[in-house]
Target: Delta(24)-sterol reductase
Amino acid sequence: MRAERVDHPIDHDQAVDTLRRSYAAVPTGEPVRLAKRTSNLFRPRSAPRTPGLDVSALNGVLSVDPTGRTADVQGMCTYEDLVDATLPHGLMPLVVPQLRTITLGGAVTGLGIESTSFRNGLPHESVRELDVLTGSGEIVTARPDGEHAELFTAFPNSLGSLGYATRLRIELQPVGRYVALRNVRFTRLEALTDAIAEVTATRSWAGEPVDAMDGVMFSPGEAYLVFATFTDAADPPSDYTGQAIYYRSLRQRTRDVLTAYDYLWRWDTDWFWCSAAFGAQHPVVRRLWPARYRRSDFYHRLVRLEHRHQVAARIDRLRGQPARERVVQDVEIPLNETADFLRWFASTVGMNPVWLCPLRLREPAGPGSARSWPLYPLRPGHDYVNIGFWGSVPIAPGAADGDVNRTIERRVSESGGHKSLYSDAYYDRDAFDRLYGGDTWRAVKDRYDPDHRLTGLYEKAVARA
Model:
């Protein structure tokens, strides 16, 4: 069966030519950035002095091959648009990050994760090939083997410092019309991590198959795992896009059903639980809040406005409240260290709830070991849990802004883990290079961006360039 075109025909070659011309127009020595309408970054950045790269025509799905279970997708295509193209075929990407406006290129170069990651790894592990605009201004096609294999391997977690993906070919997987959920409560964190190990090994729980798994910790004595099974036959599904709020259902129901579409975006409607900061979970406010604005990109826009104008911060100062430190992080902790880390986090940082998403690098289909990714060096064959926490904490008297984040970074490293770089990072350069494959990055950088036109990885992630 031939791959099907989707939506209206896209002139991909013209879109790439437009990108290359806009790249050539950036003066030497000036920072190179994408001109994007949305962002899921929480790293403040210096103001650009030049126009961003024109990626406006690189936001579509080029084709879906239902038989080969692959899709060719432009780099700036959002997962929302990608899912809209694949679900009619009963297919979904192997990993669909939680938020609608995350782009495929962004999830590969900046990492992503979701509830299928305990069996499918991270989004870049389903990429078969990708076209990259390199720092030298050339377009190269990188694959796991061949001339540009080192770029393929180093691209994940390079954050645009090695180039920008213009097209990606990814694998797809079958998904049912519905997703049946089991919300299982744990009062001991060791029991929870034992359950993660069992499901990862057997892909089942209590005799029922598990296709996806994530969870929430409200406190060390109250945590939940959600075991999801794809199905075509189910009871009438729940709806958490209206008055009901998804994360609260974990405490209220032991079994639940969602449509496949609503399951993929179950966390987006309330930005996990962060919509509470804007009053969007108050019953009266929620009824008045237009449904089209109950989504993560709108909440993120409100956060950017606050960063720019500091309205809430000024009100807190007038009320005599202490300044607050933003603590917005996702960290990967080895499974055998997860219970201790969660207890430490609850007692030291005190934010709750926190998201739990088990992760294991994808196992190869045939003989051989799992591929490793040097710029985010998780260990093949080992289980991890992504722990996500997003909010702010008061800055204690005598402490400096960033101290809590630095303490978390130290604890993550002591636990043998890693943290994603979409938000604030405070590592010195030696520690950063040691944790994020500095030697490999420099070798690939020198080959594909010999004049270092693209901003470096440390400069992006830590120096906020």
In short: The mean pLDDT is 93.
